[in-house]
Amino acid sequence: MNKILIYGYGNPGRQDDGLGARFVELADEWLVKEQITNIVTDCNYQLNVEDSAVIADYDTVIFVDASVADVEGYKLEEVIPDNATIEFTMHAVSTAYVLDLCRKIYHKNPTTYVLHIKAYEFDFKEELTDKAAENLKAAFEFIKEFVLEKLK
Protein backbone atom coordinates (compact mmCIF):
# COMPACT_ATOMS: atom_id res chain seq x y z
CA MET A 1 0.00 0.00 0.00
CA ASN A 2 1.16 3.51 -0.84
CA LYS A 3 2.80 5.32 2.12
CA ILE A 4 2.18 9.06 1.97
CA LEU A 5 3.87 11.93 3.81
CA ILE A 6 2.24 15.35 4.08
CA TYR A 7 4.94 17.82 5.13
CA GLY A 8 3.95 21.40 5.88
CA TYR A 9 6.47 24.13 6.44
CA GLY A 10 6.50 27.82 7.24
CA ASN A 11 6.33 30.11 10.27
CA PRO A 12 2.93 30.17 12.05
CA GLY A 13 4.01 33.38 13.81
CA ARG A 14 4.14 35.22 10.47
CA GLN A 15 0.45 35.25 9.53
CA ASP A 16 -0.12 33.47 6.17
CA ASP A 17 3.35 31.93 6.26
CA GLY A 18 1.73 29.50 8.71
CA LEU A 19 -0.42 27.90 5.99
CA GLY A 20 1.76 24.77 5.88
CA ALA A 21 1.52 24.24 9.63
CA ARG A 22 -2.22 24.87 9.68
CA PHE A 23 -2.66 22.42 6.80
CA VAL A 24 -0.89 19.74 8.84
CA GLU A 25 -3.18 20.44 11.80
CA LEU A 26 -6.22 19.91 9.56
CA ALA A 27 -4.69 16.76 8.11
CA ASP A 28 -3.95 15.36 11.57
CA GLU A 29 -7.56 15.91 12.66
CA TRP A 30 -8.87 14.27 9.47
CA LEU A 31 -6.52 11.29 9.67
CA VAL A 32 -7.55 10.55 13.27
CA LYS A 33 -11.26 10.98 12.52
CA GLU A 34 -11.09 8.71 9.45
CA GLN A 35 -8.61 6.29 11.09
CA ILE A 36 -6.23 6.50 8.15
CA THR A 37 -2.89 5.01 9.16
CA ASN A 38 -0.69 5.04 6.06
CA ILE A 39 -0.62 8.83 5.73
CA VAL A 40 1.84 10.56 8.05
CA THR A 41 2.35 14.27 8.65
CA ASP A 42 5.37 16.34 9.57
CA CYS A 43 5.93 20.06 9.99
CA ASN A 44 8.85 22.45 10.34
CA TYR A 45 9.73 26.12 9.86
CA GLN A 46 11.81 25.34 6.78
CA LEU A 47 13.18 22.43 4.79
CA ASN A 48 16.61 21.09 5.67
CA VAL A 49 19.02 18.62 4.08
CA GLU A 50 18.04 16.09 6.77
CA ASP A 51 14.56 15.97 5.27
CA SER A 52 15.99 13.85 2.45
CA ALA A 53 16.20 11.00 4.99
CA VAL A 54 12.64 11.67 6.14
CA ILE A 55 11.10 11.43 2.67
CA ALA A 56 13.07 8.29 1.75
CA ASP A 57 10.58 6.17 3.70
CA TYR A 58 7.56 7.18 1.60
CA ASP A 59 6.12 6.43 -1.83
CA THR A 60 4.46 9.83 -2.16
CA VAL A 61 5.40 13.13 -0.51
CA ILE A 62 3.33 16.30 -0.53
CA PHE A 63 5.11 19.42 0.69
CA VAL A 64 2.71 22.22 1.68
CA ASP A 65 3.80 25.86 1.74
CA ALA A 66 2.47 29.40 1.58
CA SER A 67 2.98 30.97 -1.82
CA VAL A 68 3.13 34.50 -3.15
CA ALA A 69 3.25 33.17 -6.71
CA ASP A 70 0.49 34.00 -9.14
CA VAL A 71 -1.82 31.08 -8.32
CA GLU A 72 -5.58 30.95 -7.99
CA GLY A 73 -6.07 29.83 -4.40
CA TYR A 74 -3.75 26.83 -4.58
CA LYS A 75 -1.74 24.80 -7.04
CA LEU A 76 -0.33 21.27 -6.88
CA GLU A 77 2.94 20.89 -8.76
CA GLU A 78 5.17 17.85 -9.17
CA VAL A 79 8.75 18.35 -7.97
CA ILE A 80 11.43 17.81 -10.57
CA PRO A 81 14.74 16.94 -8.85
CA ASP A 82 16.79 18.19 -11.80
CA ASN A 83 15.85 21.73 -10.78
CA ALA A 84 17.57 21.28 -7.41
CA THR A 85 18.92 24.43 -5.79
CA ILE A 86 20.08 25.36 -2.34
CA GLU A 87 19.55 28.78 -0.81
CA PHE A 88 22.52 29.24 1.51
CA THR A 89 21.50 32.76 2.49
CA MET A 90 18.25 31.48 4.04
CA HIS A 91 19.77 28.33 5.60
CA ALA A 92 17.03 26.44 3.79
CA VAL A 93 16.81 24.12 0.83
CA SER A 94 14.24 23.72 -1.93
CA THR A 95 11.91 20.77 -2.31
CA ALA A 96 13.78 19.79 -5.47
CA TYR A 97 17.06 19.77 -3.56
CA VAL A 98 15.59 17.56 -0.80
CA LEU A 99 14.30 15.12 -3.43
CA ASP A 100 17.61 15.18 -5.30
CA LEU A 101 19.52 14.35 -2.10
CA CYS A 102 17.08 11.54 -1.35
CA ARG A 103 17.77 10.03 -4.76
CA LYS A 104 21.54 10.40 -4.50
CA ILE A 105 22.04 9.33 -0.88
CA TYR A 106 19.24 6.84 -0.23
CA HIS A 107 18.55 5.68 -3.80
CA LYS A 108 14.85 6.38 -3.28
CA ASN A 109 12.67 8.46 -5.54
CA PRO A 110 9.26 9.14 -3.97
CA THR A 111 6.72 10.85 -6.18
CA THR A 112 6.89 14.35 -4.76
CA TYR A 113 4.62 17.36 -5.03
CA VAL A 114 4.43 20.87 -3.66
CA LEU A 115 1.03 22.24 -2.75
CA HIS A 116 1.32 26.01 -3.10
CA ILE A 117 -1.38 27.83 -1.13
CA LYS A 118 -1.81 31.50 -2.01
CA ALA A 119 -0.71 33.78 0.86
CA TYR A 120 -1.19 37.51 1.28
CA GLU A 121 0.21 38.87 4.54
CA PHE A 122 3.34 38.03 6.56
CA ASP A 123 3.06 40.29 9.59
CA PHE A 124 4.01 39.10 13.07
CA LYS A 125 0.62 37.57 13.95
CA GLU A 126 -0.46 34.03 14.65
CA GLU A 127 -3.56 34.13 12.48
CA LEU A 128 -4.29 33.65 8.80
CA THR A 129 -5.90 36.30 6.66
CA ASP A 130 -9.48 35.49 5.69
CA LYS A 131 -8.58 34.93 2.04
CA ALA A 132 -5.66 32.64 2.92
CA ALA A 133 -7.96 30.66 5.23
CA GLU A 134 -10.39 30.21 2.32
CA ASN A 135 -7.53 29.03 0.10
CA LEU A 136 -6.43 26.63 2.83
CA LYS A 137 -9.89 25.09 3.08
CA ALA A 138 -10.17 24.63 -0.70
CA ALA A 139 -6.64 23.17 -0.93
CA PHE A 140 -7.34 20.77 1.93
CA GLU A 141 -10.54 19.47 0.31
CA PHE A 142 -8.62 18.94 -2.94
CA ILE A 143 -5.76 17.07 -1.24
CA LYS A 144 -8.12 14.80 0.69
CA GLU A 145 -9.50 13.51 -2.61
CA PHE A 146 -6.04 13.41 -4.18
CA VAL A 147 -4.51 11.24 -1.43
CA LEU A 148 -7.51 8.94 -1.22
CA GLU A 149 -6.99 8.20 -4.94
CA LYS A 150 -3.30 7.50 -4.24
CA LEU A 151 -4.29 4.98 -1.54
CA LYS A 152 -6.34 2.88 -3.95
Could you describe the 3D structure shown?
The protein has 152 residues and is α/β, with parallel strands linked by helices. It has a single domain, classed as 3-Layer(aba) Sandwich (Rossmann fold), CATH 3.40.50.1450. Helices cover 36% and strands 24% of the residues. The strands form two sheets. It has a five-stranded mixed beta sheet with strand order 2-1-3-7-4, with helices on one face. Strands 5-6 form a two-stranded antiparallel ribbon. The longest helix has 22 residues.
Uncertain spans: none
| Biggest beta sheet attributes | 5 strands, mixed
Q: Could you tell me the radius of gyration in angstroms?
A: 15 Å
Q: Would you report the number of β strands?
A: 7
CATH fold type: Rossmann fold
Name of the top-level CATH class: Alpha Beta
Structural class: alpha/beta
List the helices and strands and how they pair.
Layout: E1 4-9, H1 19-34, E2 39-44, H2 51-55, E3 60-67, E4 74-78, E5 86-87, E6 92-93, H3 95-106, E7 111-118, H4 130-151
Q: What keywords describe this structure?
A:
Rossmann fold; two-stranded antiparallel sheet; alpha/beta; 4 helices; 152 residues; five-stranded mixed sheet
Summarize the structure.
With about 150 residues, this protein is of the alpha/beta class. The chain has helices spanning about 20-35, 50-55, 95-105, 130-150, and strands at about 5-10, 40-45, 60-65, 75-80, 85, 90-95, 110-120. The strands form 2 sheets. A 5-stranded mixed sheet has the order 2-1-3-7-4, covered by helices on one side. A two-stranded antiparallel ribbon has the order 5-6.
